TrEMBL record:
<comment type="similarity">
    <text>Belongs to the class I-like SAM-binding methyltransferase superfamily. MenG/UbiE family.</text>
</comment>
<keyword id="KW-0949">S-adenosyl-L-methionine</keyword>
<keyword id="KW-0808">Transferase</keyword>
<protein>
    <recommendedName>
        <fullName>2-methoxy-6-polyprenyl-1,4-benzoquinol methylase, mitochondrial</fullName>
        <ecNumber>2.1.1.201</ecNumber>
    </recommendedName>
</protein>
<dbReference type="GO" id="GO:0032259">
    <property type="term" value="P:methylation"/>
</dbReference>
<feature type="binding site">
    <location>
        <position position="66"/>
    </location>
    <ligand>
        <name>S-adenosyl-L-methionine</name>
    </ligand>
</feature>
<feature type="binding site">
    <location>
        <begin position="123"/>
        <end position="124"/>
    </location>
    <ligand>
        <name>S-adenosyl-L-methionine</name>
    </ligand>
</feature>
<keyword id="KW-0831">Ubiquinone biosynthesis</keyword>
<comment type="subunit">
    <text>Component of a multi-subunit COQ enzyme complex, composed of at least COQ3, COQ4, COQ5, COQ6, COQ7 and COQ9. Interacts with PYURF; the interaction is direct, stabilizes COQ5 protein and associates PYURF with COQ enzyme complex.</text>
</comment>
<keyword id="KW-0496">Mitochondrion</keyword>
<dbReference type="GO" id="GO:0008425">
    <property type="term" value="F:2-methoxy-6-polyprenyl-1,4-benzoquinol methyltransferase activity"/>
</dbReference>
<keyword id="KW-0472">Membrane</keyword>
<keyword id="KW-0999">Mitochondrion inner membrane</keyword>
<dbReference type="GO" id="GO:0031314">
    <property type="term" value="C:extrinsic component of mitochondrial inner membrane"/>
</dbReference>
<comment type="function">
    <text>Methyltransferase required for the conversion of 2-polyprenyl-6-methoxy-1,4-benzoquinol (DDMQH2) to 2-polyprenyl-3-methyl-6-methoxy-1,4-benzoquinol (DMQH2).</text>
</comment>
<feature type="binding site">
    <location>
        <position position="93"/>
    </location>
    <ligand>
        <name>S-adenosyl-L-methionine</name>
    </ligand>
</feature>
<keyword id="KW-0489">Methyltransferase</keyword>
Amino acid sequence: THFGFRTVPESIKESLVSQVFGNVAKNYDLMNDVMSGGVHRLWKDHLIRTIAPGRDTSLLDVAGGTGDISFRFLENVRETYGTSAGASVRVVDINPAMLEVGRERAKALGYGGASNVTFEEGNAESLSAVPDASVDVYTIAFGIRNCTHVDAVIREAYRVLKPGGRFLCLEFGSVENPVIKSIYETYSFNVIPALGEFVANDRASYLYLVESIRKFPPQPEFAKMIRDAGFTQIGKGWEDLTFGVAAIHSGFKL
Ligand code: SAM
């Protein structure tokens, strides 16, 4: 146990995760801002700059939830090329409630109708609806730590990417600096569950989120998993954001 929270057995992890995101879907975007003080926006913007999308880039955004990465991606293409008509985004997520919020946001942003962003239900561990070698860029933001079999997720990413395509994962990391680490742990285990309770009336879901961050492999270990799946990395394979509170891991399928 850690702060009274029991570790989730693998056999029920998937149903717990779907319950958590079913609970938080409506408050999800607000809570991200509240919990991170808006910093998640900077991390996501940085992810898009790292992708540096081309005019016709196709993106598969897995665990794409309410569309945060997808809309930023299309906006970046539009700003850079004057139109996002050539680009496309396919959002896959396991949770229908998150997808529904995403579809509504798409409509509100003017991506409704015959648009180049689609939302569909699917599991990151087996993307059976996505053909081999079919996408330019694969993103998974704050999603992979919720998956039961991380190695299967990376393998699927490798399969669906075209040769030359890039895998990018934005995820919470582990903080090495001891001073920052102790501040961060206090914040995670005390402040976040309390905010979950007061803002979303749901302490348990946010306690789960904190626990899932703590259990995820640290950056060097995760980078090795990506390398072992066949990806070619630049340098050590990741970039720390905000002292390693988050990190962007990436690799090319060459
Ligand atoms: N990418 C979005 C963002 O950055 O705002 C959403 C991140 S949210 C923290 C995590 C998402 O992962 C949830 O929408 C959840 O439903 C989804 N998820 C969890 N397990 C999954 C799986 N095995 N396959 C696909 N999506 C999954």
